[in-house]
């Protein structure tokens, strides 16, 4: 019967260093015939768990006993340190044996799987050994080295455990990036879509569509978070040209951009322009109930095609028309003129800025602080244009208004100074006469507003609420 020595290179069977097998392996192999010398993978049961070891078998007598020193391993490393599933990784370690024995086995164990290493530089008993290029799957990996010299001297690096690395992460992939629909108007709801896939099953850490270089977070729309369609929307876009790109990162920092460079063009929203001017100038332009930040005269461009509401705002003036509905058509400029008229108070006070300032103070600091006061302010502005036109065309009416304001302003002044302010019978009567004159000439719309104010005036509540004393009323 042939005699063999068996060396088991897996660290947890170090007992073979002492020249015998653990019983379970001996049973597996059997007592009679061992295979020819060489390297084998051996499966065995260890307390019911299936394990695997690498085994080297040599003819007896091949190994001499003696004062063999264990070889040394150092400078173990893997290059590169990071990569993806197409990266070839090379492991190397420095082997040195003081007995000048070459390694009969020198392995790197990557995730417990052994790979051979070959002499890369130096001498075979004192040199650097390197693995062939190894491809790794996704995720975290670890490795360690072992070497056995000709005399069975064994070393493991590190002595216990393993070295962490590298981490393999493929960046996610994007496809089918698009905006839907690809054209529209300023009121179109646009949706952005892109299909995301990550090989490792990573969910995106960041998912953005960048519209005109502003990032918006996309949400999973269908499928799985690691393999699904992401969407952003609805998004309203202004008239003109737009562009977009997608950028995602997975949880390991793998980045993908679509397109790789530059942007996708689209959608383009058909537009025209609105040229706005008026009789006074420097009025704030309000488009679709939002301040534009521009003042007259000005041409707004691009403006989405369709109907838009244009209005002007200028302190002390009322505009005619009070607003304009403008139809914007593609590639054309629509002229939109306004007439700005001084508001009734400005006409009656003949641009007296000091008194106008005082009236504005009354409006902002007293009237607008109460809900009924705000209602009167709104009522005034709703009818201001008509009143301006009435007093501009009727000098008697204008004089009457002027007279009332000049008498009323000192009382307002003392009211605002929190002094005693008495509204006399005479003044009340004059106000009533003015209102009646306006009612007589006004539109049905103005007539009904004045009727309401007259009723309030009779009750006197509105004046008392503001802090006036009414003569003969205690
Ligand atoms: Ca040695
Ligand atoms: Ca990934």
Task: Give the SSE map.
Elements (H helix, E strand, L loop, with lengths): L3 E5 L14 H7 L8 E9 L2 E11 L12 E8 L2 E2 L4 E9 L6 E8 L2 E11 L2 E6 L2 E2 L3 E11 L4 E4 L5 E6 L4 E8 L2 E2 L5 E8 L6 E8 L2 E4 L1 E6 L2 E9 L7 E8 L4 E4 L5 E2 L2 E2 L1 E8 L5 E4 L2 E6 L2 E7 L1 E8 L3 E4 L3 E5 L4 E10 L1 H5 L4 H13 L5 H22 L2 H22 L5 E2 L1 H17 L2 H16 L1 H6 L2 E2 L4
Parallel strand pairs: 5-13, 15-24, 25-32, 33-34
Antiparallel strand pairs: 1-3, 2-3, 4-6, 6-9, 6-10, 7-8, 7-11, 8-9, 11-12, 11-13, 14-16, 16-20, 17-18, 17-21, 19-20, 21-22, 21-23, 25-28, 26-27, 26-29, 29-31, 30-32
Q: Number of helical runs?
A: 8
Through-space gap between termini: 134 Å
The gyration radius over C-alpha positions equals 46 Å
- Number-wise, the strands total 34
How would a textbook summarize the main sheet? 10 strands, mixed
Percent helix range: 10-25%
Mean pLDDT: 86
Number of domains: 5
The general outline is elongated
Structural class: alpha+beta
What does this structure look like?
This protein is α+β, with helices and mostly antiparallel strands and 474 residues long. It folds into 5 domains: 4-59, no CATH class; 72-168, Immunoglobulin-like, CATH 2.60.40; 173-268, Immunoglobulin-like (Sandwich), CATH 2.60.40; 270-341, Immunoglobulins (Immunoglobulin-like, Sandwich); 344-470, no CATH class. 23% of the residues lie in helices and 44% in strands. The protein is built from 8 helices and 34 strands. Strands 4, 5, 6, 7, 8, 9, 10, 11, 12 and 13 form a 10-stranded mixed β-sheet that branches. A hairpin with a 2-residue loop joins strand 26 and strand 27. Helix 3 (353-365) packs across helix 5 (395-416). The longest helix is centred in the C-terminal third of the chain and has 22 residues, at 371-392. It is elongated and about 135 Å long. The model is unreliable at 1-33 and 59-65 (pLDDT under 50).
């Amino acid at each position: 019967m042939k005699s063999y020595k068996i060396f088991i290179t897996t660290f947890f069977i170090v007992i073979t260093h002492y020249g015998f097998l653990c019983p379970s392996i001996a049973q597996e192999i059997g007592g009679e015939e061992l295979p020819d010398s060489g390297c084998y993978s051996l499966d065995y049961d260890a307390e019911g768990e299936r394990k695997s070891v690498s085994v080297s078998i040599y003819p007896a007598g091949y190994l001499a006993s003696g004062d063999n020193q264990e070889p040394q391993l150092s400078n173990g490393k893997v290059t590169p340190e990071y990569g993806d599933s197409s990266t070839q990784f090379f492991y190397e370690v420095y082997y040195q044996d003081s007995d000048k024995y070459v390694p009969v086995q020198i392995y790197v164990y990557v995730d417990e799987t052994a790979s051979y290493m070959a002499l890369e530089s130096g001498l075979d008993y004192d040199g650097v050994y390197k693995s062939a290029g190894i491809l790794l799957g996704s995720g975290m990996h670890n490795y360690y080295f072992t070497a056995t010299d000709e005399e069975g001297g064994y070393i493991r690096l590190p002595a216990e455990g393993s070295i962490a690395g590298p981490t393999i992460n493929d960046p996610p992939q994007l496809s089918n990036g698009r905006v839907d629909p690809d054209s529209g108007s300023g009121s179109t709801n646009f949706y952005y879509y892109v299909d995301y896939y990550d090989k490792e099953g990573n969910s995106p850490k960041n998912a953005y569509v960048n519209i005109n270089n502003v990032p918006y977070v996309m949400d999973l729309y269908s499928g799985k978070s690691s393999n699904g369609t992401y969407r952003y929307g609805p998004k309203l876009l202004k008239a003109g040209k737009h562009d977009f790109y997608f950028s995602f990162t997975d949880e390991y920092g793998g980045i993908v951009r679509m397109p790789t460079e530059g942007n996708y063009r689209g959608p383009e929203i058909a537009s025209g322009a609105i040229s706005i001017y008026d009789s006074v100038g420097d009025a704030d332009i309000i488009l679709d109930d939002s301040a534009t930040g521009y003042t007259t005269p000005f041409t707004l461009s691009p403006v989405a095609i369709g109907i838009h509401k244009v209005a002007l705002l200028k302190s002390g003036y009322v505009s005619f028309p009070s607003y304009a509905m403008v139809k914007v058509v593609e590639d054309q400029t629509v002229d939109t003129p306004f007439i700005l008229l001084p508001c009734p108070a400005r006409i009656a006070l003949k641009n007296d800025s000091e008194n106008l300032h005082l009236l504005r103070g009354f409006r902002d600091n007293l009237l607008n602080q109460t809900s009924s006061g705000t209602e009167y302010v709104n009522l005034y502005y709703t009818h201001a244009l008509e009143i301006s036109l009435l007093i501009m065309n009727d000098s008697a009416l204008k004089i009457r208004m002027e007279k009332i304001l000049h008498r009323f302003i000192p009382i307002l002044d003392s009211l605002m100074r929190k002094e005693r302010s008495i509204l006399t019978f005479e003044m009340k009567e004059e106000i009533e006469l003015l209102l009646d004159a306006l009612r007589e000439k006004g539109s049905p719309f103005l007539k009904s507003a004045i009727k309401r104010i007259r009723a309030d005036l009779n009750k006197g509540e509105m004046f008392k609420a503001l802090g006036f004393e009414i003569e003969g009323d205690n």
